[in-house]
TrEMBL record:
Subcellular location: Secreted, Cell wall
Catalytic activity: [(1->4)-alpha-D-galacturonosyl](n) + H2O = alpha-D-galacturonate + [(1->4)-alpha-D-galacturonosyl](n-1)
Main subcellular location: secreted
Protein name: Exopolygalacturonase
Keywords in alphabetical order: Cell wall, Cell wall biogenesis/degradation, Glycosidase, Hydrolase, Secreted, Signal
Pfam families on file: Glyco_hydro_28 (PF00295)
Length: 396
């Protein structure tokens, strides 16, 4: 027994070393049995390569080379011995059938300190089967389809230059994490694909989403409870629902949302431009220090919107006004066109009026000759600079 265990260990070590030297320091999933035929499930090979890299000294990268790999749901977990790289050069495809997933993710990176995901490859969620079942919109009892790529309990990570297409639910979810930069991402799913948020961030701090393009059927970047210290910069969105803080206040004991900056972004052909959205409910939390700056909004139905009356499913008249308190929100240098007459719509809660909502240099056109309007309630917006439409309290 002892001898054969030793022999097999030595054999594994020799194998790892040869695999390592063959691919420039990365463990190639093909050396662990992955076949690039788009049909054979490479999940086992990906997991084995990850485990080998994670637990070895020195080898810290897993390579998915060029080619088309079917990969069933996998959780790539740490803690690992050193920093880890997941280099995706080819395409990984999820099983098309939502029934193949027992968890709420397809590929999950968990409990890792120092992670890089790069390589220019593509995560293909093969989502059409999930969308055609209507996602989970509106149904009370319905299994939520899996997120394509999830990062949870990850610290100090860079997600760089990868693509995500046709997720079944969110494309990328960052939760319970800190110090993550996601950049040069290309995220694509059809305008009518439900719940395909580009990047959703919750219970995480010091997160940057930069230099990316998101075309999807839902929010471009969405900010959930507990997001603190988030910078969204140089991101182009549309189609989809725009950049959104919320929905907040749906559940009890949500953590506050704070220190959010959205800067130099373009949002085009979307339902909303920049939005803060809270549910009608008794659950209290706060959202504050939120700045939307240098944003070009083209042809959005609601270019600037605060909606504290969100209530898509229930009989809304019975629901209490939102108890999420919104304060210190800046809309600075927001320019472009509105697809509807109400270019600025600030619907704050009657139970919890918004405080310190500052509009500066807002310049939004509706169709030629037809002036857009600003509507607001339960807030006294402060405005300065160019203001089209004007949001003076006298207008209320
Ligand atoms: C929010 O900003 C304040 C003021 O700069 C800072 O003290 C605090 O650490 C920030 N919090 C996060 C989570 O970014
Ligand atoms: C945004 O993009 C421009 C041009 O590529 C670049 O100069 C600038 O540094 C970027 N901003 C950030 C914060 O990365
Ligand atoms: C804003 O972002 C665009 C690309 O998204 C870039 O071309 C431009 O240089 C950026 N401007 C600044 C001031 O960062
Ligand atoms: C607001 O958040 C930004 C980061 O997004 C931070 O730099 C700034 O100090 C915060 N301001 C306050 C008053 O907390």
């Amino acid at each position: 027994m002892a001898n054969s265990a030793t022999a097999s260990l030595l054999c594994t070590a020799a194998f790892l070393l040869s695999a390592w030297s063959a691919s420039g320091g990365a463990l190639n999933v093909k050396d662990f049995g992955a076949i690039a035929d788009g049909r054979s499930d490479a999940a086992g090979a990906v997991l084995a390569a990850w485990a080998a890299a994670c637990f070895s000294d020195g080898v810290t990268a897993v390579l998915v080379p060029a080619g088309n790999f079917l990969v069933g749901p996998v959780a790539l977990r740490g803690p690992c011995k050193g920093p880890m790289t997941f280099r995706l050069e080819g395409t990984v495809k999820a099983p098309a059938d939502p029934a193949a997933f027992s968890d709420e993710y397809w590929i999950s990176f968990e409990s890792i300190d120092q992670l890089t995901v790069n390589g220019g490859g593509t995560f293909d969620g093969q989502g059409a089967t999930a969308w055609s079942r209507g996602g989970c919109t509106g149904a009370s009892k319905c299994r939520i389809p899996p997120v394509s790529v999830r990062f949870s309990f990850v610290k100090w990570a860079t997600i760089d230059g990868i693509s995500s297409i046709d997720s079944k639910f969110f494309h990328i979810l960052i939760s319970d994490s800190e110090h993550i930069t996601a950049q040069f991402l290309t995220v694509t799913s059809p305008a009518d694909s439900p719940n395909t948020d580009g990047v959703h961030i919750t219970r995480s701090s010091d997160i940057t989403v930069a230099h990316s393009t998101v075309r999807s059927g839902d929010d471009c970047v969405s900010v959930g409870p507990g997001a603190a210290g988030l910078l969204v910069v140089n991101v182009t969105c549309g189609p989809g629902h725009g950049i959104s803080v919320g929905s907040l206040g749906r559940y009890e004991k949500e953590e506050d949302v704070k220190n959010i900056t959205v800067k130099n972004c373009t949002v085009q052909g979307t339902q909303n431009g920049v939005r803060i959205k809270t549910w009608r409910s008794n659950y209290a939390s706060s959202a504050y220090n939120i700045t939307f700056e240098d944003v070009v909004v083209k042809d959005a139905a609601n270019p600037i919107i605060i909606d504290q009356y969100y209530c898509p499913h229930l009989s809304c008249n019975d629901q209490p006004p939102s108890r999420v308190s919104i304060s210190s929100v800046n809309f600075w240098n927001i320019r472009g066109t509105s697809a509807t007459k109400t270019a600025v719509n600030l619907m704050c809660s009657s139970a919890n009026p918004c405080r310190d909502v500052d509009l500066r240099d807002v310049d939004i056109y509706y169709e030629a000759g037809n002036k857009p309007v600003c509507e607001f309630s339960n807030v006294k917006p402060i405005s300065s600079g160019i203001m089209q439409p004007a949001c003076s309290p006298s207008h209320a």
